[in-house]
């Protein structure tokens, strides 16, 4: 088993050791170089729109804007983050995607003239009534889906997302003179290009059938990343070619160039992130060994929610070599008072034993590829404060979110007399 620094060359050893000296407790770390590299791989698309729900730290968002990326927001909180990070409502820099919205959100959207990607007919009614002429996209459910898990499926009869009969949107759009600028489908195909072709064909069919002159189409997100060493990385060339063909047919139909947008979250940030935790106990329980670390599923949710796999590596506290033939089989658990707080489980909640070298209390245990849906999914369960986030740029670590304090956590309640 390789230690962390042998496993990945993406992080400078001295920089990481410096961070470990300075901060205790679990920490999220992001590497700027990787984000830049991933953006570069998608440069053929006219517009890259970052799905910020995957990693919504304002400093990451600012960085994205600097790198010419536009932004997607799916809640009033994310909309506020986008504005605070400097994204402007002009040029559709911000698009609000949702299937419903409350009064407060509608108000904010109208006041700031935020382009809306509507996933339901009622959203169009709401918007039309108060803001005729508003710039909108419609999100279409192409009546089929794809997804590594029912919980992440975004199309078909088992998905709540998008408009099932987009032709019913047209009279509403006409009635309120809403300005339809684009068609959107977020299905995601990973590395399944046959499926992707089906999605692209569905987009062409819808665009021609609806026959509303538009300026944009969006390929949505859902580009996978290799979590396991055996996973195949996405071929962005294939991805672009299929979507570009679809775009060209639609451009030809409307006799002007349609802009092609892509909207990834995971692909841009997933591989840039790691979660560093510390081993606090190695416990024998009957025939099993539980290794307990200082991060729980309140910090890092994916393994518990989806049974997601994340590579694990070790930084030995005492610099000892891990090159030994001695392994232990162990289950990795967290500190939460909840038996499901286990990072090594399958999607049905069955606990899995993994092979680790002979570890010691005090060693660091690192989860890889946690940049997407890591920190942004954290909660305060067990009254645990949110943990710090650090961005490494040009080998210089910069804290981009400090640890939340327990006082801050209690304040909402203590304010009430
Ligand atoms: C979540 C989401 C994305 C990003 O999905 P990834 O799998 O992270 O690429 C893109 N668009 C919409 C509308 C989403 O909800």
Summed up:
It contains 13 helices and 17 strands.
Give the key terms:
alpha/beta, decarboxylase, TIM Barrel, 9-stranded mixed sheet, Lyase, Ornithine Decarboxylase, Chain A, domain 1, single chain, 8-stranded parallel barrel, 417 residues, 30% helix, 2 domains, binds pyridoxal-5'-phosphate, 17 strands
Explained architecture:
This protein folds into two domains: 167 residues, Lyase, Ornithine Decarboxylase, Chain A, domain 1 (Beta Barrel); 221 residues, Alpha-Beta Barrel (TIM Barrel), CATH 3.20.20. It is built from 13 helices and 17 strands. The model has no long low-confidence stretch (mean pLDDT 95). The strands form two sheets. Strands 1, 10, 11, 12, 13, 14, 15, 16 and 17 form a nine-stranded mixed beta sheet that branches. The protein has an eight-stranded parallel β-barrel with strand order 2-3-4-5-6-7-8-9, surrounded by four helices. The protein is α/β, with parallel strands linked by helices and 417 residues long. 30% of the residues lie in helices and 22% in strands. The structure holds pyridoxal-5'-phosphate (PLP). The site of pyridoxal-5'-phosphate has 18 residues, from helix 11.
Question: Which distinct ligands sit in these coordinates?
Answer: pyridoxal-5'-phosphate
What's the average pLDDT? 95
Q: Round the Cα radius of gyration to an integer and report it.
A: 23 Å
In which range does the helix fraction lie?
25-40%
- Strand composition percent: 15-25%
Count of alpha and pi helical runs? 13
Structurally, the number of domains stands at 2
Looking at CATH, which topology of the largest domain would you report? TIM Barrel
Helix/strand structural class: alpha/beta
In N-to-C order, the SSE pattern is: HHEHEHEHEHEHEHEHEHEHEEHEEEEEEH
Tally the beta strands. Answer: 17
Main sheet overview: 9 strands, mixed
What's the architecture of the largest domain, going by CATH? Alpha-Beta Barrel
In one word, what is the shape?
Answer: globular
Active site: 337 (proton donor)
InterPro entries: Ala_racemase/Decarboxylase_C, DAP_deCOOHase_LysA, De-COase2_CS, De-COase2_N, Orn/DAP/Arg_de-COase, PLP-binding_barrel
Subunit structure: Homodimer.
Modified residues (N6-(pyridoxal phosphate)lysine): 53
């Amino acid at each position: 088993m390789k230690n962390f620094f042998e496993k990945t060359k993406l992080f400078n050893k001295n920089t990481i050791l410096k961070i470990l000296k300075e901060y205790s407790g679990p920490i999220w770390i992001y590497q700027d170089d990787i984000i830049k590299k991933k953006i570069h791989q998608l440069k053929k698309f006219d517009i890259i729109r970052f799905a910020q729900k995957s990693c919504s730290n304002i400093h990451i968002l600012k960085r994205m804007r600097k790198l010419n990326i536009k932004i997607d927001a799916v809640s009033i909180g994310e909309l506020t983050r986008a504005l605070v990070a400097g994204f402007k409502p002009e040029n559709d820099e911000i698009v609000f995607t949702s299937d419903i919205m409350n009064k407060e959100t509608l108000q904010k959207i109208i006041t700031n003239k935020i382009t809306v990607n509507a996933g339901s007919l009622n959203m169009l009614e709401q918007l039309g009534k108060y803001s005729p002429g508003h710039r909108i996209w419609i999100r279409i459910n192409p009546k089929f889906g794809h997804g590594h898990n029912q919980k992440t499926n975004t199309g078909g009869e088992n998905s709540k997302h998008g408009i099932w009969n987009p032709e019913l949107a047209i009279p509403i759009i006409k009635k309120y003179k809403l300005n339809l600028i684009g068609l959107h489908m977020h299905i995601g195909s990973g590395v399944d290009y046959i499926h992707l072709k089906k999605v692209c064909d569905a987009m062409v069919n819808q665009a021609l059938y609806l026959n509303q002159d538009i300026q944009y189409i969006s390929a949505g997100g859902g580009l996978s990343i290799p979590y396991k060493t055996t996973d195949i990385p996405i071929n962005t060339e294939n991805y672009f070619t299929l979507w570009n063909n679809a775009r060209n047919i639609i451009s030809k139909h409307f006799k002007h160039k349609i802009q092609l947008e892509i909207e990834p979250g995971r692909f841009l940030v997933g591989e840039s992130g790691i979660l560093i935790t510390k081993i606090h106990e190695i416990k024998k329980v009957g025939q099993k060994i539980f290794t307990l670390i200082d991060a729980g599923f309140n910090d890092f949710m994916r393994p518990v929610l989806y049974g997601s796999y994340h590579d694990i590596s070790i930084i030995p506290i005492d610099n000892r070599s891990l090159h030994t033939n001695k392994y232990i089989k162990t289950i990795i658990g967290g500190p939460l008072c909840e038996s499901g707080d286990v990072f090594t489980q399958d999607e049905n909640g069955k606990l899995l034993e993994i092979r680790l070298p002979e570890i010691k209390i005090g060693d660091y245990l690192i989860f890889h590829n946690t940049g997407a849906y890591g920190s942004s999914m954290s909660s305060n369960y067990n009254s645990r404060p949110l943990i710090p986030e650090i961005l490494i740029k040009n080998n210089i670590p910069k804290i981009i979110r400090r640890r939340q304090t327990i006082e801050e956590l209690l304040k909402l309640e203590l304010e009430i007399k």
